[in-house]
Amino acid sequence: MTFFICVFILLMQFLWKYIDDMVGKGLDWNVVAELLLYASFGLIPLAFPLAMLLASIMTFGNLGENYELVAMKASGISLFRIMRPLFILAVGLTLLAFYFSNNILPKTNLRFYSLMYSVKMQKPEMNIKEGIFANDMPNYSIKVERKSRTSNMLYDLMIYDHRRNNGNVMVTVADSGKMEITSDKKFMAVTLFNGQSYSEEDERRQGRDRRYPYRRETFQKEVINISMVDFEFNRSDERQFSRGARMMNARLLSFWGDSLYTDYKLHVRRFVVSFNYIGDVLKQINWMTNPRDTLKMNPVAKPDTLVDIDQTIKSLSTFEKDELFQKTIANVRGNSQLISQQIEEMTARKIMVNSYLMEWHRKFTLSFACLIFFFIGAPLGAIIRKGGMGMPVVVSIFMFIAYYVFMIIGEKSAREDAWSMFSGMWLASLVFLPLGIWLTYKAATDSGVMNLESYQLFFKKLAKLSFLKRRKTEI
C-alpha cells in the first residue's frame, strides 16, 4: 500500500514538471496513459526506499502501540530475532530493486524519453484568439475579430495564403465562417460566407510598361482545406536515444564510461600539447602525457631544471629582453585565448563522462537505500510506538527529505568533480547507515531516544549539578 502511495505522490511531481509540455497538444488518452505509465516506472527506484521506510515504521509502530513488542521481549525474544524475517524480506526487496534498475528501468526510460521527445515536438492545437493573427497552420495566417460563445461560428475573418512564399500577395476576407476538422483528421475545412479574395499576379511587360495586375473574386460560400499533416502525432525513433546514460544497464554503463574517459584523456592531452612552449618543455610534456608507449624514456635528464630563468635573462641585451618580453606576452595571450575556447568543451566532455559513472553508482545506491531505510524505520517504529498514517508519515517524509538533500549534494559535487565519484554518490548512504545502526542498537537496548521524560531528567540533573558547583564555589 505504501509503495503505491509513494509512486502516486512522486507521479504528481512529474505532472507538475511536464504539464506545460502536454497541455494543448491534442494528444490521445492512450498516449498520455502510456507516458504516465513509463514515468511511473522511472519513479520506482525512488519509491522503493521511501515505501520501505514508511512501511517498516508503521509495522513496528503498530506492534509497539499494541504492546506486542513488549509481549515478545518478555517471552525472551530479542528485537534482532523479531526483525529477522523482515530483514530477509528487505534483502529480497533490495535485490529486486537492483534487478529492476539494471534490467527493466533502462528499457522503460528509453521508451519514456523517446515518447516525451515526440510529445514536445508535437505542434499545439489550433488556438484562435480574437483580434490576433494565428500562425499555427502551415502556409496560412488567420485573424478573427469575434468568436461566437454559443456555436463554432467566427466573424470578420482575414486569411493570408503564404503557399507561394512571396509575401502577403493572397488574402481572403469574409464576414463569417467556421472551422471543422474532417472525419479522417487530415484536413481543416475552413468554410467562409459572404466574402472576397484578392491575389496579386506576376509582373507583366518590362521597363516603363510594367503592369501589376491583381485578381478579385466575390463569393457567397467558399471552402479552404488546410492540411493537418504537421499536426499529426509521430513517434520518434527510439534508437537515437539508446546511447543515453539512463538507457543502459550496469555493464554497458561501465563499458561506455571507460571508453568516454579514455577519449576524454586523449582530448586533454591534445589540449595540453597545443600550447606554445619552448622546445625542451614541449618534449617533457609529450613524454609525461604519452599514455601508450610503455618503453618511453625521459628526453630531459633533469626535468626540474629545464630553464634557468635568471641566468638566461642576465645574458640578454636590453633589446633582446624587450623582444623576449613581447614574445612571452604574445604566447600568454595566445594560450589564454586557446584555454577560453577549449575549456567549455573539456568541461562538457567531463560532465558526460561523469553522467555515465553517476548512473552506474545510482543503480547501487538507491537499491542499497532500501536496506538502510529498513534499519532506520524498524527500530524507529519500535521506539516511537505509533502506528497508522500519522506520526510515521511525518517521520518518513522528514527522513526521506534529509536523505534526498544529501543525495543531491553528493551528486552535484561528483558531477562537478568537487568530490570523488564514490564519495559524492555514496554520501547519503554513508550518512544514514551509521544512523540506522545506532537506532537499531538503541531500540534493542530499550533506550528512550524518543522519550521526552528522559531528556527532561537529563537536563534537570545537569542544572542541579551546575547549581551545586556554583554553591560550592561561593562557599
Structure explained in plain terms:
With 475 residues, this protein is of the alpha+beta class. It has four domains: 2-122 and 360-442, no CATH class; 140-231, no CATH class; 247-355, no CATH class; 445-475. 60% of the residues lie in helices and 12% in strands. The protein is built from twelve helices and five strands. The protein has a five-stranded antiparallel beta sheet, with no helix packed on it. It is flat, with a radius of gyration of 36 Å. The protein starts with a helix and ends with a helix.
Question: Which short descriptors sum up this protein?
Answer:
475 residues; alpha+beta; five-stranded antiparallel β-sheet; 60% helix; 12 helices; flat
Chain-wise SSE layout:
Layout: H1 2-22, H2 29-65, H3 68-74, H4 79-121, E1 140-147, E2 153-161, E3 170-181, E4 187-200, E5 214-227, H5 250-273, H6 279-289, H7 309-314, H8 318-384, H9 391-415, H10 421-425, H11 427-444, H12 452-474
Antiparallel strand pairs: 1-2, 2-3, 3-4, 4-5
Count of helical stretches: 12
Element order: H for helix, E for strand:
HHHHEEEEEHHHHHHHH
Spatial shape:
flat
Question: What is the CA-CA span between the terminal residues?
Answer: 66 Å
Main sheet strand line-up? 1-2-3-4-5
Question: pLDDT below 50 for ≥5 consecutive residues: which ranges?
Answer: none
Task: Please outline the major beta sheet.
Answer: 5 strands, antiparallel
The mean pLDDT is 79
Q: How big is the Rg?
A: 36 Å
Task: Tally the beta strands.
Answer: 5
Q: What percentage of amino acids are in beta strands? A: 5-15%
Helix content: 55-70%
Overall number of structural domains: 4
Q: Which structural class fits the helix and strand makeup?
A: alpha+beta
